Structures
1.
Amino acid sequence: MDDVLQHLVTLLTDKFDVPADAILPDSTLTDMDLDSLAVVEFAVTLQELWHIDLDDDAAADITLDDLAKTVRGLLSEQSGTAAP
Amino acid sequence: MTGQRTAPTPQRAAVICGIGSSLPPRVVSNEELTRQGGLRTSDAWIRSRTGIVNRRRAAPGIATGELATAAGRAALESAGGPPPDLLLLATTTPDRHCPATAPEVAHRLGLSTIPAFDLAAVCSGFVYGVSLATALLLSGSCARPLVIAAETYSSIIDPLDRDTAYIFGDGAGAVVLRDADPGQPGAVIATDLGSDGSRCDLIAINGGGSRMPLAAQQLTRHDRYFRMQGRDVYAQAVRRMTQSSRAALHRAGWAPATVGAFIGHQANQRILDSVADRLDIDPRHRFGNIQDVANTAAASIPLALADTAAQGLVPPGARTLLTAFGGGLTWGSIALTWPSATPRHHPPHPRPTAEPSPASPHPRTQPWTMSSSTS
């Protein structure tokens, strides 16, 4: 598991109280019982951490693997900002 | 933003010396609202998304001015002492587009010809109003301003809009400020205000203004009512209230951990929790009554202030942080010490009427009398 995926998993367990066994590579945030406001909160938290603008509308229903790919893509778009 | 800078100690401060509130007596529960149909939601869903259980609704014929007059009178009774020399009314829902509602409220309160005007900052209106009143007081332009925030959102909400219909309630709160030593409980220590008009469409009523006049066209249902893009508003509210709170605390020279009372604009309990968590405000220092009164826009902070003070939950003098966010976008925060005033509450004061007007949309049934004109 790379650092981005690991960080997303930690965020989901620690901040959003998602049970670890519910976090699977092909689970979506909706599958993990995050409602629409929780997905916005998730996006705001990532924005604060990494200064990326994650589209919360699109983030809710893609798999965790795809979400990590999206985040990695947003991070790589930032010039001069190293991925965490 | 660690609060290391010590704020300059002013010789004088604007100090909250009176607190008033007014709520319509009619309570509308989530269950009643969802029973009316059309919203396709439930009590459990509304509670989990917003923290709201009940809201108040003004009776037909009760407008913002009636709530404002009652809250203003309650604040004046709470303050005692000489009458105010300026009245500022923050509202999204004035009685009429023209003129402002404040002069008539001043008249109904028996305040003669003092300056009186409305302020439009949507849900940030009270914080904007107290900040402006503080500046006017410290500049010597007034000595005892009355700041009222009053809203009748039931007049602008689409009862069939699943995004907003259950969120808002009607109500009013008010404070009196006076010139005093900054060590007095209730002293305004620091303020922070901001706006971002690039996101002006997130919270709006499209129709009825000069861009889309009522007389020019038949408005669609969408344009006739208040509309809000909830998820975008959530993200902006969390960011802006957090940043603004930090700015106000920094100016006050207060570390967040020293805040003994936090009251945020009661838009949504989850937004409040999100902001307070980011600021590291201890849950036992967070106060509000969104569960009972819902989002009352500009009135939400003074209503929560009055409710908390009435229960004696915060010792006078405790470091206090108020923060708000609203349409505009607008936001603002105030660092103050908890007031020692005992709040007063009045039900809405019905408006005395003169001759019945055939143009009036709400025919008045109460005869005008000299005695009733004092309300």
2.
Amino acid sequence: MKEKYILEKRIEKGDFNKGGEASSKLKDLLRKLGVDSAVIRKTAIVTYELEMNIIIHSEGGWIRAAISREGIQIFAADDGPGIADLEKAFQPGYSTASDQVREMGFGAGLGLVNIKNYSDELKVDTKTGVGTKIRAIIHLV
Amino acid sequence: MKLIDIVEILGLEAIIAGNDQLEIMTACGADLMSDVLAFTQEKSLLLTGLTNPQVVRTAEMIDIKVIIFVRGKRPLVATVELAREKGIYLYLSARSMFECCGILYQNGLQPEEINGCFSPGEEE
């Protein structure tokens, strides 16, 4: 069955001005649906980190979100370059971000760490030179 | 602690003034946005030296209501506009991050709980 998304948004490479718009929109949608505020906050953090990762590291991609009985599912898919060392990427403090990105307060090597800490389920598929697909689930209760 | 007390103690200049009676339970000070996102509690205060719009975006994600820019650094116009749109209050302090945090701590404001705190060596 094809997933019905409550949010689907294209994220452009390096588009810091719009960074956070997808997460903000999802947050508003969930609030209107009456989702618990702690669940909304977890979802917002995970989505925001995923969104910023696409902006900072990839060649552009998509953020999509769906609600099912499992919880809130967030999908991040991007085109290249992929994560060369996935184990390292989950180590707090490990980062490949540029100085410019760091000056903005990002690229501290905590993005994936936060995503993991706030998600109830997390799956990362990455291929060097191709791209990265991440699915995060936040349970409703 | 009420917002009006914080404004008074630190001698803050309002950029977007908030409700004086707003109760601030906890605070965090950070220049790393992922550090801010590791804080878990609601209705808190952020002290930061960063002035770009992403600071407001980050605050929005975890329902931070008040941002204080330290060391007299004025936020960018885009930052102020986004804060106005999102209903986040902005203040300016001439004091350093360390001094602001110290004064607030001394006056009884509590630090935030952090989700996922790593002790040195834990990952080894």
3.
Amino acid sequence: MEFLMEIMTEEMPPVHVKGALAQLEERLTEGLIANELVDRNDSYGKISVFGTCRRLIVHGIFVEKQQDKQATIIGPPKSVAFSDDGSAKPAATGFAKSQGVKVDDLEIVKTEKGDYVGINKIEEGKPTQVILEQILPTIIGTLSFPKMMRWSDSSFRFSRPIKSILCLCDRKPLRYSVNDISPTNHTTGHKIYSPKKLKVETFAEYKVLLKQNRVVIDPEERRIQILRQAERKLVRLEAKLHPDDQLLAKLTYDVEHPYVFMGSFPQEYLKLPLEVLSTAMREGQRLFSVLKGKKQLPYFLGVADAYKDPKFLIRKGNERVLKARLEDAKFFWEQDVKSSLKEKSKRLDQIVFQERLGSYQDKTDRLKKTVEYLADKLELHREKNAATGAAELCKVDLMTDMVREFPSLQGKMGGLYAKDEGYSIPIWKAIYEHYQPVSLDDSPPSSLTGSILSIADKLDTIVGTTGVGVEVTGSKDPFGIRRNAQGICKIILEKKLSFSFPRLLDKIINTMKDRLVKEKGDVKSYVLDFFNGRLQHIFESQGYRYDLVKASLAPGIDNIYHSYLRLKALDSLKDSPQFEPMIIIAKRVNNILRDQSKHKVNEELLLEKQERELHTTFSIIRDNILPLIAIGDFSKAQRMIFRMRSSINDFFDHVLVMADDKKLRRNRLALLQEISQLLGRIADYSLVVIEG
Amino acid sequence: MKPALLEILSCAGKKTIPTNNERVDRARMSLQNLIMSLQRFWADQGCYLAQPYDVEVGAGTMTPDTFFRVLDDRDWKVAYVQPSRRPTDGRFGENPHRVQKHFQYQVIIKPAPSEIQKLYIDSLTSLGIDLQEHDIRFDEDDWESPTIGAWGVGWQVLLDGLEITQFTYFQQAGGIDLSPVPVEITYGLERLEMFLEEKDDIFSLDWSDDVTYQDLRAREEREFSEYNFNQADVRLLQSSFQKNHREAQRLVAKGLLLPAYDMCLKCSHFFNLLDSRGAISVTERVKMISQIRVVVNHIAQKYTSQEVST
């Protein structure tokens, strides 16, 4: 049976369309399965979804109806229903009547509780159409969108007003109603070119009919059309689109019929930086910039909801608007370079970062100290001056006209203005990159100066806002703390930056002086916990086993990069034959030590051969491992740990730890405690899960 | 130069020949003709044509013909031109696109007719725009005015990339959920006229056959930009804000809601002037906006409860 549904609305945002299509597919599938609309192979059929900003489309091939079911309906016990002579008592006639059968049709059913009267009935399966009519109003009515609206006097909410619903089962419209709208068997074409009613019977016909009426229903087809048309426009220039997946995704849904047009702008605006040009084009008009190699050309590509532009009206209109925007941008650039960043920086104290955390001047002062500290710890002696220089100027662009107009250019503009003023590469790059990574897929700063400035800035925000009581909840994260923390981890891991994280926190907390409302210790442990959680999330999303992640994060975050190296080492050894036995031993050691108070090893009390041997092996290994831990070579350290295995085994086989003699017992526990402590600096092995 | 490039560049410079229809329309095009066309169109849809409100506002939404009338559940259809002041947008009359005062054409219809998008498109067609030759887009753009506790869902309408209209289904005003939902259509008259006249300088627009935008507005832009940015007396504005705020509170208590609302509009304008003087810090901004909003919400609540009791 063929199912076709199209919900037509006024223009929905692309995110809403994608979300709704996913929900429709999922809930309809669930509904089919819950209602046993499946064939003998338990397959419900096939669902595909399509959409534009004005249409949510579902197509399905489903079974005709539920399968018939053999059902036994049990009535009263045999003894109650029939006399011994087999004649029917009132209970039997009553039951037969209630089931609409004759007494003769009643059968005896054997159950665990004895013989009962019953009947065997074939329950006919309901037609799919009937079930769809039952479940669709709820499925449509409970679609959820990031932001919903009302549009009449009813309380019904949706992304945008629903105009009509087309809903067919084998060519016939279904009967139901959603917010007083009942399905029909017609749709309409493109809003401008073909707003007339179109009668539809099958999906194949629907697709063709809409295409004839300037609507391409398949997003993927539209996306490819955009790219192909763009390619054709650009081939003569030997140029390509400035890649922008987000813009492409938006445009793919924003139009029902993509038409790519090319336009140009006066050469003089090419003096503006590429970043400014592409932002001016993207924001507002949704235009792509055009590159030849890395060079910006004075052209742009736009995607219209049209199929032609014979008089170049669309193109010329866009050219006029773009020229105005570029003229504005040029004006802003000229205004901004009238005074130097240094001069502008004098007004940093006039803009508030956060009420309690002070102005951007206060933030800048803190950043300088933090950056200096980080440069020292990372032994970046050459970069230190550049990094603090960049810290001093990195927030100044918040006061430029350009950033006020295009907030997404913050940081970048500061960098570009610094470059224009002749600052060195490490300085302007650091300013330029210090918001990076701005999202999960954005790359961290390319420069070291930018990396440490970015860490300092983000951590200043995290520590500060946490310390004044801004909470992060599931949906609330006004300062982007989660994203910032993720960004810091990304920089540290990709740049392999090795330093003590808790000490950096101490440093930053100190730069806050008395601004924090919460106790310093609380702030520190909250931030450490928060990062622990973030790291766990990052590592698991990279595909590491969750127990290994837990085990390697258990020693606490001292050095974030080392946490990662510990995990990598653990992960690389997980398949070695020594791995499991070692884990088992570590668990055994931990079990014995549970709830024991701490003791010290007294070498003279090591009586047995095996405990002397273990102590010697351990001492040698410890002396070798500690330097390895310090430089972060955890693979080697772990392999060394494995070498202790036979000594520990011998020890457990021949030495009674829980000896009656208190002194001996304490001494043996002490030895194990030292071993456990050493192990714990690499991972908490007891958290590793062993299968079987 | 490569032949391919030449071809592209020559296209950019080529003037297209307008069709007969368009030539006629173009000749008639002026801001006042645009206004008259819209008045005719929306009057035909049953709208009452209001006159501009006489207190400074930042947008047509803020005038009583919109603010109060959307609160109750009675049908309401109104259209009007509203001069709107945004002091920070002033550019001394030197920028071809930015002015500290512009003209909006405001339409409010309650309840929102189900064919309102089509009506709006018809209104553009009635101006002589052949949409089959252009690219019209309804681009997600939800609207919010924290000062009057109002928000709505809708679009900015882009015509060949130019934003000509804000199209909004009001969800809340004065902090109150609106039912039935009104639709608001706000045309930017200068933008639309620039599109119609194919001009890229606001001051070159024709207001009538003989008068240009330059003639009417240049001096006003120059003098008001100087006032807004450099001369407005910050202390006077601050104390005016506070006095009007107190007056608004006093009037609400007396149940004089329309005068109280006027005081709020004045506060809002003083606030905008202080902003263009650069005299408001981030925290003050939040505080002042909420000061106005609290009174406005109070007015809205009283207004709706009076509505119920009358």
